[in-house]
């Protein structure tokens, strides 16, 4: 299945989801407005995400190689770690070095 076909199928699934949410909203009514609103918001977020994926695919950014193929490599030096960089820092949750907790 091509990328375009998969995105089209995903879009159709989102359309079915929105129709189901509308029917559910009609059945539940205003008895649980927060829950229904949350489901509608999640469906809208999914639609926005699919639109971004479609735009990426249309721009030629989707290569099918995954994110790791595009990731920039970071070189880690073999030099020993310089602990002097952290002499004045506080340990998170523990306070400053060489001081006792209250």
What's this, in brief?
With 102 residues, the protein is mostly helical. It has helices at 3-28, 33-58, and strands spanning 90-91, 95-96.
List the helices and strands and how they pair.
Layout: H1 3-28, H2 33-58, E1 90-91, E2 95-96
Helix pairs in contact: 1-2
Task: Outline the structure in words.
The structure is a single chain. By secondary structure, the chain is mainly alpha-helical. The protein has a domain at 3-68. The protein is built from two helices and two strands. The chain has helices spanning 3-28, 33-58, and strands at 90-91, 95-96. It starts with a helix and ends in a 6-residue tail after the last strand.
Structural class: mainly alpha
Number of strands: 2
Broad shape: flat
Question: Whole-number average pLDDT?
Answer: 80
> What's the arrangement of strands in the largest beta sheet?
1-2
Report the portion of residues in β strands: under 5%
Helical amount among residues, as a percent range? 40-55%
How far the N terminus sits from the C terminus, by CA atoms, comes to 63 Å
**Sheet bearing the most strands, described?**
2 strands, antiparallel
Task: Please give the radius of gyration in angstroms.
Answer: 25 Å
The parts where pLDDT drops under 50 for at least 5 residues are none
Order of helices and strands: HHEE
Q: What oligomeric assembly is this protein in?
A: single chain
Provide a count of the helices.
Answer: 2
